[in-house]
Design brief:
about 220 residues; alpha+beta; MutS, DNA mismatch repair protein, domain I; four-stranded mixed sheet; tRNA_splic_suSen54
Length: about 220
């Protein structure tokens, strides 16, 4: 597994979760986030719906359309949650309708207002990786409960620059990623995303090792 210095290098129930993983859609065409594809999706009328939860800074999916959930969002107790980066990306490409506590539709500007500081930096990295077709997950946050048990990862939903919650990572695992940057005289190297090559057979319950890890440095 390779750690990538982004700034310097590029200038429920287990039963329900199993069902979510094994459901087969009639449309078997794989989705690739190329620029052309994103352009086509911006006019999509049949959108997924999600409810924004301010307390955790994530969106809980209430209605799924298409297959994007197979490689996006984490599964907890049979529900799918999107991070703020995933939520904004899906809204930008026109496939997600986001609702507030009153059921009112939120605009892109409403979510842009929530993305500031470290959040915006993370979003730009996330958006670029998705536009290249990669599968991107939050580093240290398990895709599903089954994945968490097998890889000793955190089942916490929230992991962000502004979060006070501690991610449950094995110390030597973290050191193996951040360690190489110490010799480069970089004050802080923080792993943020686990990145996987495009894979039509990707499973959240068993994602395997990421192809590389994105680190942000200060």
């Amino acid at each position: 597994m390779e750690a990538v210095d982004w700034e310097n290098s590029s200038g429920g129930s287990s039963g329900t979760e199993a069902y979510l993983q094994d459901t087969k859609y009639e449309d078997d065409e794989e989705l690739h986030f190329t620029s052309g594809f994103i352009s086509q999706l911006q006019f999509r009328k049949d959108k997924s719906r999600a409810h924004w939860i301010n307390e955790i800074g994530m969106a809980e999916v209430v209605e799924n359309k298409g297959k994007l959930w197979r490689t996006m969002g984490v599964v907890r107790s049979g529900e799918i949650y999107y991070s703020i980066e995933e939520t904004l990306f899906l809204m930008e490409i026109g496939v997600l309708l986001l609702l507030d506590d009153n059921g009112t539709s939120l605009s892109l500007n409403d979510i842009y207002a929530k993305v500031s500081g470290g959040y915006w930096e993370l979003f730009e990295v996330y958006r670029h990786l998705k536009s290249l077709g990669y599968i991107v997950g939050q580093h240290g946050i398990a895709w599903s409960i089954k994945d968490a048990k097998s890889n000793h990862q955190s089942v916490s939903l929230h992991c962000s620059p502004q979060s006070s919650k501690v991610v449950d990572l094995e110390s030597e695992d973290e050191s193996s990623i951040v360690g190489p940057f110490n010799n480069m005289h970089i004050n802080e190297a923080r792993p943020v995303f686990d990145v996987y090559l495009p894979n039509s057979k990707f499973r959240k319950s068993s994602p395997g090792d990421p192809s590389f890890v994105i680190c942000l440095t200060r």
